[in-house]
Amino acid sequence: MHVLLIEDDPLVALGIRSGLMTFDFVVDHVSTLKAARQALQTVSSDVVILDRGLPDGDGLQLLSEWREQGIDVCPY
What we know:
One of its GO terms (biological process) is phosphorelay signal transduction system. InterPro entries: CheY-like_superfamily, Sig_transdc_resp-reg_receiver. This is Response regulatory domain-containing protein. Residues 2-76 form the Response regulatory domain. The chain contains three helices and six strands. The protein is an alpha/beta fold. It has a single domain (2-75), classed as Rossmann fold (3-Layer(aba) Sandwich). The protein is globular and about 35 Å long. The mean pLDDT is 92.
């Protein structure tokens, strides 16, 4: 399973990524809304772990955009 991790805190991201990779998940990590938008266009993800407090905006803003565009990814 492929996970897109959107988290700006490096320590939190490291913990989540390490834990998921222990169970053979493939994890791509980005730390801004801008990078998340780009990643979703280039990488096929099964699940998104989405931080709300990102340096360039609220993660819910991105989720709303994805829903409006009909993007079907499961955010957690």
